[in-house]
Amino acid sequence: MYYQYFGLTEAPFSIAVNPRYLFMSARHRDALAHLLYGVGAGGGFILLTGEVGTGKTTINRCLLEQLPSDTDVAIILNPALNAIELLASVCDELGIEYDHHHHTLKTLTDNLHSFLLENHARGRKTVLLIDEAQHLDFDVLEQIRLLTNLETNNEKLLQIILIGQPELAQMLARPELRQLNQRITARYNLGPLNLDETSAYIQHRMQVAGMSPERVVFSPAVVRGIYKATRGIPRVINVLCDRMLLGAYGRSTSHVDHDMLQIALREVLGEQAPESTVWRWVAITAVVLLLVWVGGWLLGKYSGKEDVDPLNVAAIQTPSATIPEKARESRAETLAPAARQLPGAATVDVIPVLESSAGAAASIDLQSPSEKVDIADVLLPPGDTLARLWELNSDQPVPPVPCADRVQDGLACVEGEVWTWDELAEIDRPMALEAITPERFSAEVLLLGIEGSSAWVYTETGIGQVSLAELAPYWTGRYRFFWRPPENFTTALTLWDENDVVAAVAQRFAELDKQPKPLAGRGFNRALEQRVRLFQQQHALVEDGAVGVQTLLKLNEQLGVDVTAEQARRQLQQGYSEEVVE
Fold first, then answer.
1. Residue 290 confidence class, pLDDT cut points 50, 70, 90
2. C-alpha span between 45 and 199 (Å, rounded)
3. Average pLDDT for 263-285
């Protein structure tokens, strides 16, 4: 199966309810808290509503696991019953004996009442949970309301939980059901996941299935597409992601992309791009081309220069469309790594190096304008970029596969995909960008930071700047970079986890806060969780209190653990300056 192809132990997106894959978003925690409060209140009705697939069954499982041991529960999963059948089902669930051949509504109610009184005398509570309650008839709802009349002087003998789709709340709001509606002591409508929760949900299920935390199969850009298509409904997310992983397996790729998303949407949800959308883009393109032609004609007319048709490709000066000869040679050399001696951080950059009167290289200001480089010099052969990235982050020799699924010499590799330069600039690390040459060869770009509308890049002759507009047509949107996770970190840390990784994370927060003593030892306590939530809030991260890859990346950034883009530029510049002096 495809999960073996991705190194997983099982299919991560099964629609079956598996407690191991439990993902409690803030909404799920609130819903569970409302249910537990209602049960503890001792009487009346509890109402939980939510759209199909939002996780109501998950909440049910959590509630049943957290109910006190002195609680007896009757669960009705098929409410398409009349009043007598419902009472008989409740008696069956609670083990109440009655005459199966000659029973009436009164005899069933009397037997249930006697059981509730005996249970109360033994100090036990009784809960009736009805799933898919929107299918209950009016007469059955009225009979359920009458069950809450079974009470003592102090409390109700039966606690009733109604779970259903949003139309259940609308049905209870009808005037004829106002008596039941007024007896609801706790109610909650479970909404879908937001974008950040959708991303965390997908990553959580992949990691539970055995994927390493630093590996990214669903890039942020693809997750946005999934969220838009599913509206954050977990069940639909599962079906869609399962189909996308199967598509990636069929194509023998290590990650999913937008093409696979569109195919999965058509196959799973039956969605297709409307024909009107295609014609709208054709019309927009025609208008843009017309404006470009008019602008070029006016520019030539009023500048006094020879008119140039902007639609004539031959008349437009473009960067060279080929990789330089030395890059081709470098590509060939990568086939025999042993024959090549990588120079490490010592490179020759295109930023002018000034020599003092003594002949020594003077310092260079990285913020000063640098020489613009040709786009062809920026496109490097695959493999070279990761090797140089490794040397920027480690003193150890470059491993055969630098970007592996495991941590090597303390370094982990992150792979991702974004849509905009803004998203890339927020990462602020030296990284390898996946690119494609005009001849459709694979290439990479070593990005050393983004400044305004230009990018700092590494070339065979050193550091330079290139326009983002020039670079954009070659970039696929995918990137890779290295970072240093805490030792033995494999999955996100959550409340009550207990291991050495928790202690290491608590120590990093103590260093950040300049505190002599960390908030926790090996146990992930409430104090550490609150500190993590505050940190996530300050840095616009998903505020879930868990310590995952994104939280650790930002924590490393604040502590200076990982090499930033600017530090990488200075390191390369210093190596070049020393080489010039020698």
1. low
2. 34
3. 59
Please name the residues in contact with 170: beta carbons below 8 A apart, sequence gap of 6 or more.
none
- 3-class state of residue 230 by DSSP: helix
Structure tokens, 571: 């390191």
Which of 77, 66, 74, 79 shows the shortest CA–CA distance to 35? 66
HEC string of 241-297 equals: HHHHHHHHHHHCCCCCCHHHHHHHHHHHHCCCCCHHHHHHHHHHHHHHHHHHHHHHH
d(CA 236, CA 230) in angstroms, rounded, equals 6
Backbone angles phi, psi at 143, to 5 degrees: -65, -40
Residue whose C-alpha is closest to residue 458's, from 557, 342, 562: 342
Cα–Cα distance for residue pair 144/160, rounded to 1 Å: 8
Give the residue-averaged pLDDT of 325-333. Answer: 42
Distance, CA of 537 to CA of 534 (rounded, Å): 5
pLDDT, tens digit, for every residue of 338-348?
333 333 333 33
CA angle 494, 49, 223 (to 5 degrees): 50
CA distance 461 to 350: 7
Other Cβ atoms within 10 Å of 347 Cβ, number: 19
Host H or E run for residue 465: strand 462-467
| pTM (two decimals) | 0.47
Q: What whole-number distance in Å separates Cα of residue 230 and Cα of residue 240?
A: 8
pLDDT, position 288: 57
Report d(CA 510, CA 518) in Å as an integer: 5
In the DSSP assignment, the letter for residue 366 is: T
Mean pLDDT of the chain: 78
Q: What is the rounded distance in angstroms from the CA atom of residue 129 to the CA atom of residue 160?
A: 6
Mean pLDDT of 124-144: 85
With H, G, I as helix, E, B as strand and everything else as coil, classify residue 189: strand
Q: Quick one: which of 418, 412, 435, 413 has its CA closest to 219?
A: 418
Helix axes 526-538, 500-513, angle to 10 degrees: 50
Distance CA 313, CA 309 (A): 9
Q: Report the C-alpha gap between 118 and 130 in whole angstroms.
A: 23
d(CA 239, CA 492): 24
